Amino acid sequence: MRRLARRRGGYRANRVAWRWIAAFCLPALLLYGLFVVVPLVTAFYYGLFRWEGIRQGEFVGLGNYGEVLTRYPLSEEIPAALWHNGLFFVGTMAIQNTVGLGLAVLLYRNPRGKRFFQTVFSLPYLISPLIVGYIWSLLLSPSFGPVNFMLRTVGLDSWARPWLGEPDTALPVLILVNAWQWVGGPMLIFLAALGGIPRELEEAAAMDGASAFRTFWSVRFPLLMPAVGVITVLTFIGCFNIFDLVYALGGSDGGPGGAMDVLGLLYYRTAFEGGTNAIGESSALAIMIFALVFGISVVLERVLRRREVTP
Amino acid sequence: MLRTRRGVVAVVAPLIIGLTACAPSAPDSASSSGAAQQITLDVWGWRQEDVAAYKKIFKIYEDAHPGVKVKYVPYKSTEYDTILRTGLADANGPDVAQLRSYGLLQPLVAAGSLVPLGDEVKELGAFPETILDGARGVTDKKVYGVPFAIQTMHVIYNKAILNKHGIAPPTTWDSMIAAFDKLKAAEVTPLAATMTDTWMLPVQQEIFGATTYGGHDYLKRMLAGQAKFTDRPWVDSLTTWKGTSKYWGPQFEGTSYTDAQALFTSGKAAMFPGGIWELAAFAKAGPELEMGIFNVPPAPGAAVTEPLVPGFVDGSFGVSAKTPEKAAALDLVRWMASPEFGKAFSKELRQISAVPAVAPEDPLLAQALTAYQANPSPYVTYAYFSGGTPTAWDLASESLSKFALGRSTADQAAKHVQQGIDQWFKPTP
Known about the structure:
The structure holds 2 protein chains of 2 kinds.
Chain A: H1 2-46, E1 49-52, E2 55-59, H2 63-70, H3 74-109, H4 114-122, H5 129-139, H6 146-153, H7 167-182, H8 184-195, H9 199-207, H10 212-240, H11 244-250, H12 263-272, H13 278-306
Antiparallel strand pairs in A: 1-2
Helix pairs in contact in A: 1-13, 2-13, 3-7, 3-8, 3-10, 4-8, 5-11, 8-10, 9-10, 10-13, 12-13
Chain B: H1 2-20, E1 39-45, H2 51-64, E2 68-74, H3 77-87, E3 96-100, H4 106-110, H5 129-132, E4 146-158, H6 159-164, H7 173-185, E5 189-191, H8 200-213, H9 216-223, H10 232-242, H11 257-265, E6 269-275, H12 278-285, E7 291-294, E8 309-319, H13 326-336, H14 339-349, E9 352-353, H15 363-374, E10 376-378, H16 380-383, H17 392-404, H18 410-421
Parallel strand pairs in B: 1-2, 1-3, 5-6, 8-10
Antiparallel strand pairs in B: 3-8, 4-6, 4-7, 4-8, 4-9
């Protein structure tokens, strides 16, 4: 009897669960299919043809891919853009995520005003990157911008410069502005992760006489690895797909001498400032960018997951 | 959407007309739908700021053509090309569309979205060939639009500042440089030069460098394959232009287009090298601003002895191949090639009409047009080498930026352009 009841109950529970799961997943799956899978497949399909304006022409197989990779100046712009995306990623990891971690640790150790600062640091989140870009390009303008004005007023005349006009400073400025906007993200994730570390581990370390520095690196940081992994992958995807902020700061050409040219801008130019075969070529480029970002994200995830430890 | 609504109007209108007896006058002969006595022609464009002006302009046409309504439907300039490409693909799109010129027109021609106008609009015969080039398909050489505006490029100056420093508009290169030096010594930025918006760089290069390479004569040889961007004259024209960089103001590297405009309208800079299209915006930003224009005199070692005035066709009006009102649409663009339209256009929009023999009322525009007609020079990278990918205009924007910032030599900058267009450009000897 009992076995039967359990089996029947279990059976019913499974059945209900399955239906519920389906009911809950279906809308998301539909949206995902419609807005992610369909465009992706369409882009792949479009990329296999030559286009004349909006008229689909002959089938060219991987011809558009070859065209995009070999045609001057795209053949030189693609590696340059990749390099800039890479630098942007490294810079963002080094600045945005390090500062985010630092802020998280400070707020965790000193909970006074925690709510307030959490809100303050996350506030730029609410502004569209385009607006952030325009605001910063106004702030940094050499003719009218307050940043240079302030530097001059305090006697740092030699520091005042056309920040977004010089190829050497443009990309670092991009990294800083981007970090200014998103630093709240890693901070919140790290804060949550820090809260999840059992107190007794830290107490044990303290009992063993470990310094605060040692406690952080030997106890807390290894336990933060899952958060580090998530943030690294998200940062990577964000950095390799960046478009709006760079566009607002440097226009579609990627700033002075193309110093901020990234894959997103390259795609934009190919698609919207391209010639007759713009649809074919930009689709091919989009698929290549997707393959790159997807491939590296998967590898990154694998590598980082292997380094995770559990308390 | 619009068509559907018009369809409803077509069904409902006769009923209402029957009831109220306020029928419109005789149906237009061009009407194709029979039931509808009122034809509405949608004219798509990218000039949101011009809606009121176009309303006035089209009113003239509507008054002369009862039963035809012309509606200007503007889209955001930066999105217009994409919207138009899709819009032209079906009958619910525009009847008549404002078309970009030269290279940007080619995708629409290639897609077969437009009606060739050569046989339909006889008035085009009076337009100079160099103006029609702006509305021509590069492969079939057919004309697909009625050019509406000519843009010319000059140095625009602030009269008050020049008067204050006792400077007359220069007539020789040396007197121009002397004027720049004088202004610089008085701590006025001589030239509000745009740097970060790289599309302005080829404009400035044409303004200062055209006399060095020689304008249309050199272009003719380039199109015939006898000269290249990498040959001395064009390379030197880059050097001529960059030679003025010490007058571009402090930290010019970071000056954007809007910065440069603000420098000029606020009186911080005395001159603005740019297109005649700036006048309207400048007048709006500084109603008190008194402006003049001059053309850059031949540079030392120039190929010509007269100042050259670079100019190009800004765009044209073409007819959608898919329009159900083709006859009425053709009628409208035929009118757009007439002096009546040209005059109204020039008056309402404060621009130079492309219609031959229409003189602008505005004295500065009239001066610009007269100078252009006397010594016209092409906008080479934008107009004549933009029919393939990559366009010389894009290539020049990139390479002139590197060159002006000191990241490449003039030869490298020119090579970038030549190497890019060599992949598609076929000279016609």
